[in-house]
Amino acid sequence: MKQGIHPDYNDSVIVCACGNRIATKSTSDEIHVEICSVCHPFYTGKQRLIDTAGRVERFKRKYAKSGN
């Protein structure tokens, strides 16, 4: 490898929205993610709705009129 052309590879922390912190190595000091293996439905077996700008409420209002 050539010297002086590669970025610094330091200890880093991945921070999830659920509060979980994972130690890793990266060129960034801190990485923020929305879902990790602790809170992801595939790993936990629990469904978690992530409401973005009221989409769930809008969906419920739209299909509440159909009566199903």
Automatic annotation (TrEMBL):
Cofactor binding summary note? Binds 1 zinc ion per subunit.
Please give the cofactor(s) recorded in the UniProt entry for this protein: Zn(2+)
Record Pfam families? Ribosomal_L31
Taxonomically, the superkingdom here is Bacteria
| Keyword field | Metal-binding, Ribonucleoprotein, Ribosomal protein, RNA-binding, rRNA-binding, Zinc
List ligand-binding residues for Zn(2+).
C16, C18, C36, C39
GO cellular component, alphabetical, reads: ribosome
Its quaternary organisation is: Part of the 50S ribosomal subunit.
Q: Which PANTHER family match?
A: 50S RIBOSOMAL PROTEIN L31, CHLOROPLASTIC, LARGE RIBOSOMAL SUBUNIT PROTEIN BL31A
Q: Which HAMAP family match?
A: Ribosomal_bL31_1
The family line of this record is: Belongs to the bacterial ribosomal protein bL31 family. Type A subfamily.
What is known about what this protein does?
Binds the 23S rRNA.
What this protein is called in its record is Large ribosomal subunit protein bL31
